[in-house]
Every structure is written in structure tokens, then in C-alpha cells.
Specification:
Blueprint (H helix, E strand, L loop, with lengths): L15 H7 L3 H15 L2 H10 L3 H18 L2 H17 L4 H24 L1
């Protein structure tokens, strides 16, 4: 696995310039961000639980879903971490705990970042 996937997450995760252009109307951006929070608020805990229970197939599917969400939301760091987990599960049938925790921690921070942005809209 690439060492770059193990780098401690940093903020900001969200490419705010791109997503603001993509969803030019503030009401639309707010709706997208609210939907994201609704669907991913529990994702960090879910990632940790799946890893602890060694439910690797489900973890890989969640990482794939998260990668798609991160692509839509223009969050390259989340894309990279999600892809690392997904690729490892696909290729080995297992997931690295450190990489999965990096993704879960990054998700905690990303959700907090989006929640803070929502408070300003």
C-alpha cells in the first residue's frame, strides 16, 4: 500500500472553490451539503465498526460509495483514502486498520468542515 495513503489527514478536505462554482446557487449548495451530512454523519463510526468486526467486503463497498460521494463533492483527500481502502479490500480481501482509521478520522474532520460551512449559509 502506498505510504501517501497513511499520511495523517489535514484540513481543508473540501475544494470549496470548485463546489461553489459547481452549485452556483447558495440554496442548491446548502441542499447538497445538508444531504451529505444526512447520509454521512455516521460513516466514520460505521467504518470503525466494520473494521473492528472484520467485515471487509462491506467495508470495501462503503469505501467505494464514499469515493463516489467524495468525487461529487470534490474532496480529493477523501477520494484518495477511500480508494486506498477499496483497492486493498478488492486485491487482498482485507483492509489495513491504520488506513481505515485514517479514512474514518478524515471523515470526522470532513463532516465537521461541512457542518461549519453550513452554519454560514
Amino acid at each position: 500500500m502506498e505510504n501517501s495513503a497513511r499520511v495523517a489527514p489535514t484540513v481543508p478536505f473540501q475544494d470549496w472553490e470548485t463546489i461553489t462554482k459547481q452549485y452556483a446557487k447558495p440554496a442548491l449548495l446548502k441542499m447538497v451539503l445538508e444531504s451529505f451530512i444526512k447520509h454521512h454523519l455516521q460513516t466514520p463510526a460505521e467504518l470503525r465498526t466494520l473494521m473492528a468486526n472484520q467485515e471487509f467486503a462491506v467495508l470495501g463497498k462503503l469505501a467505494h460509495k464514499l469515493k463516489g460521494s467524495a468525487c461529487v463533492m470534490t474532496a480529493p483527500k477523501i477520494i484518495k483514502l477511500s480508494e486506498a481502502v477499496e483497492t486493498q479490500v478488492t486485491s487482498t480481501g482485507m483492509a489495513d486498520e491504520a488506513i481505515t482509521e485514517s479514512l474514518a478520522s478524515a471523515m470526522d474532520l470532513w463532516v465537521a468542515e461541512i457542518s461549519s460551512k453550513l452554519a454560514t449559509l
